[in-house]
Design goal:
By secondary structure, the protein is mainly β. It folds into three domains: 32-129, RNA Polymerase Alpha Subunit, Chain A, domain 2; 131-220, RNA Polymerase Alpha Subunit, Chain A, domain 2; 224-317, RNA Polymerase Alpha Subunit, Chain A, domain 2. The chain is 14% helix and 49% strand. The chain has helices spanning 3-11, 14-34, 71-74, 168-171, 259-264, and strands at residues 37-48, 53-55, 62-69, 82-87, 95-100, 102-105, 115-120, 123-143, 150-158, 161-167, 176-183, 191-196, 205-206, 211-220, 224-235, 241-245, 249-255, 272-275, 283-288, 290-291, 298-302, 305-312. The longest helix is centred in the first third of the chain and has 21 residues, at 14-34.
């Protein structure tokens, strides 16, 4: 066939032929689309190129990703190989911004074609404020009580404070951060446990490991009882002498493991006494206050010594 005739036949009725070719391409695409499958999953959103600023209001942390491709390849794509992010490049002042959500492929996702990727939402509204860092004290939180008859006398946290980072609008209200609940139920002795630091506000970042070490000191409660205004009596005073105490009453401090014994105890009349048997002339003396014993309890008397004035009785007073 001569070239001119071939060209003439090729361009003969060319609009119809172009339309037919276009329809064929469309049908092919529709066919390919009809045999593609769709897969959905959620991925965390990353904020990039934001240094001096931080979000000051809540925003979607997870983005819905839709993948469309051939069934044989679609499920070979690892979820971590589709990254979603917002680019904050050039934002350096507080305010409200609408930022488009972008995505990028890596790893297994680079090897799959065709692969259509869509994200939802396609843009996010951010309220931004200046980023502030400061030290904040940790506060221990407790669950339950130590065993009956015991008491937690002291405790400590190591570290006792952490560095937190957040937007200026929120940081002013942050003065303490709680730990997770520390279980005290049934404890009878000192203990040390690692404890997580609670992050109740996701817009506030806690620097470090997020763990503090709690140490609690547990001691047994010893029952005590105090008895006041117990008479101090003078014993052993020789004939012909008188004694005058500067302090005439004292107190008894009782403690022990038997609260019933302490409750029923009543000191006899000479329970607190000073012994003057060794004094043979008048004068002012400081004598030790002596006590009797009490079964089942430990005791301590106050005062432990007392001043006494010893005088001689004149013969005309006999």
């Amino acid at each position: 066939m001569q070239p001119n005739k071939f060209f003439a036949r090729a361009v003969d009725n060319w609009p119809a032929k172009v339309l037919s070719l276009g329809m064929a391409i469309v049908l092919f695409i529709i066919y390919r689309m009809s045999i593609l499958e769709t897969r959905f999953f959620f991925a965390p959103i990353a904020i990039e190129n934001l240094s001096a600023m931080m979000p000051s209001s809540h925003y979607p942390r997870m983005i819905r990703i839709s993948l469309r491709g051939e069934a044989n390849d679609l499920y070979s794509v690892l979820e971590n190989d589709i990254e979603t992010f917002v680019d904050m490049e050039g934002i350096d002042a507080p305010g409200t911004y609408i930022i488009p959500v972008q995505w990028r492929k890596k790893g297994t996702a680079l090897e799959v074609e065709p692969l259509q990727i869509t994200v939802e939402p396609i843009e996010i509204t951010f309220s931004l404020d200046y980023k502030i860092s400061k030290f904040v004290a940790l506060r221990a939180s407790f669950l339950g009580q130590v065993e009956a008859g015991y008491n937690m006398t002291s405790f400590s946290l190591n570290p006792a404070q952490v560095i937190v980072e957040g937007p200026a609008t929120l940081m002013g209200s942050i003065s303490e951060i709680d730990t997770e609940l520390i279980d005290l139920a049934g404890r009878t002795e000192d203990f040390t446990v690692p404890t997580a630091i609670l992050q109740r506000e996701p817009l506030i970042l806690i620097r470090g490991s997020g763990i503090t070490e709690f140490t609690g000191s547990i001691s047994q409660i010893i029952p005590v009882r105090n008895i006041f205004n117990v008479p101090i009596v003078i014993t052993g005073l020789k004939d012909g002498f008188t004694g005058e105490l500067e302090i005439k009453t004292g107190s008894i401090h009782l403690e022990g493991d038997n609260p019933d014994a302490m409750e029923v105890f009543e000191p006899p009349p000479d329970f607190l006494r000073v012994d003057c048997s060794g004094i043979s002339e008048g004068g002012i003396y400081v004598l030790r206050v002596m006590t009797s014993t009490a079964e089942g309890v430990r005791l301590r008397a106050e005062p432990q010594e007392v001043k006494i004035t010893i005088g001689a009785i004149r013969e005309d007073e006999l």
